[in-house]
Amino acid sequence: MQSLTSPARCPAAFPNRLWLAGLLAAGVLLDALLIWAAPAERTLGQVVKLVFLHGALVRSCMLGFLAAGLLALAWLVRRHDALMRWLTAVQRATALVWLLYLFSSMIVTYLAWGELIAWGEPRVRSTIYVTLLLAAAVLAAEWAPAPGVRALANLFLAAGALYLIGSTGVIRHPLNPIGTSPSAAIRLSYAGIVLVTAVCHALVAGLLYHPPQAERTVRRGAPCTS
After folding, report:
1. What is the pLDDT of residues 52-90, one digit of tens each?
2. What is the pTM of this model?
3. Cα separation of 11 and 199, whole Å?
4. What is the DSSP letter of 9?
5. What's the CA gap between 127 and 54, in Å, rounded?
6. Which has the least CB within 10 A, 22, 150, 154, 161?
7. Which ranges in 144-219 belong to alpha helices (H)?
């Protein structure tokens, strides 16, 4: 039993942002090396390396949408402040990664098909719809004072984004060119890029996470008060 005169136990502090930034920089460098070392493809040549990044970013965003939706659902059930803080961090990180995905999408589309935005391709239109859903969710979350609005917005965003990305057909866009490739080197390279990209995505969320005041006090070296 704890003594009445013993100091109160301090909460475990969240990892220092400097460490997270260092890990993120290492992850980005590793991702770049994996993309550089990835094998070329017979049809697209070296452009396929950008396709690897393009695919890894959208898969990471799908995981981000799913994670935000699950955190939103958990908050609606438990109403814990930590869940809302993580939901906010994951939503913002996924929005940033999605913007990077949009930029890569235009580059890959131009190099592969000669146009920045292929309006006739269903996958491109679904990307635009998801972008509009994401923008609406971010605006609702950032402007509305009630945390329940953020939770509901991300819940609907997760459902809508996963449905649109998972159910949209293709015309020129290959359905699963890397997964069905006969080259083990291509499949393994892509798997590594997806994994590292997802880890970098998680590190961005960690950098955007705002710990409670008690943890910030502990990191500054001040004594615990509760």
Report:
1. 898 899 999 999 999 999 999 999 998 899 999 999 999
2. 0.80
3. 25
4. P
5. 12
6. 22
7. 147-167, 184-208, 213-219
Name 45's bridge partners: 41
Of 62, 52, 32, the C-alpha closest to 194 is 52
Number of other residues whose CB lies within 10 A of the CB of residue 63:
17
Nearest CA among 194, 139, 212 for reference residue 27: 194
Extents of the domains making up the chain: 47-211
The token pair that represents 60 in the structure block: 């990471």
Answer for the pair 101, 54: CB distance below 8 angstroms, yes or no: yes
Provide the 3-class DSSP secondary structure of residue 89: helix
Q: How far is the C-alpha of 41 from the C-alpha of 174, rounded, in Å?
A: 14
Give the CA count within 13 Å in the CB-facing half-sphere of 100: 20
Q: DSSP letter for 101, please.
A: H
Q: Measured on CA atoms in the order 141, 133, 124, 168, is the torsion positive or negative? A: positive
- Give 19's contacts (C-beta < 8 A, 6+ positions apart): none
